[in-house]
Amino acid sequence: MRTAKAALLAVVKAADDQTIASKFGHADTAAFLEDFLKFSPTEAGRCVQRARTFCGSRALATGEKLAPQLEYAGEAMRRGELADSQLDAIRAIITRLPRRIGIEERRFAEKTLVDVASQLRARELHQLGNRVHGHLDPDGTMPSEEENARPRRELYLRTGTDGRLAFRGSFDAETGSLMQEILSPLAKPRTDDKGKTKDRRSTAERNGDALADALNLIADSEKLPIQGRERPHLTITLSWEMLRDKLGQVRAYENTVISPEAARRLACDCDITPLVLGAKSEALDVGRTARLVPMSCAKR
Fold this sequence. Notes:
Elements: H1 2-17, H2 20-23, H3 29-36, H4 41-54, E1 57-58, E2 65-66, H5 71-78, H6 84-95, H7 103-116, H8 122-136, H9 145-149, E3 154-159, E4 165-170, H10 173-186, H11 203-219, H12 240-245, E5 250-251, E6 257-258, H13 260-267, E7 271-272, E8 275-277, E9 283-286, E10 290-291, H14 295-298
Antiparallel strand pairs: 1-2, 3-4, 5-6, 7-10, 8-9
Helix pairs in contact: 1-4, 3-4, 5-7, 6-8, 10-11
């Protein structure tokens, strides 16, 4: 299967060199593969990228055979020794090396990765690649003053119609390491009294539970900023009948909808402020905040 893929990449590289795509009215080789082989845009892009990196070509003027950008990896690919994920890992590691690293050092790094690739998965190759980078470029690339002042951190949040929050993003290395250090002890598999692991949660589920625990710890921290004369916690609005009968929709942060049953669970561990409203939602009476734990919750 791998040698067949290598043969396909050789054909793709030849088509790319001869600009076959333009003859069929396509902007580039990736678009041609999308149309001709019905590849997805991602699959087509990666195919062309691998072909250009690991496949040799011939000079148009003389017909001379030219070596691929990564020769050692290209030879291993043609022998069927490397999976697609391993090829992508090796390409990413070598191309991330700064320009000041010489050709011989690059070739040495590539050969080292190829020699051990049969024993390593792609993730482990990336880990080895970090060590290679540390050896060839111990000082690393100095960040600019702007990067030092404003490290790149991104977090995109999207609330679904059912109130579930989806998010994606990336942190700089320092913040990412801090997050892993915080979540790691909270995400450990649960054990019984005898120290045996009895945790059927997946890694993703354990990480999700760990983040939820971390948020609760943060919410209870005295170092959180004051907003509206109190530290930020989740605030929900519902009627007593809705809480009692578990019917209707409860409004939370930015009109997020949660179920009355979820509100009942939150009420088991919260401060409750009784508030009497008039017909026009005007506050008629505000009672003192108290911590109440219903007996139904205490039994749980």
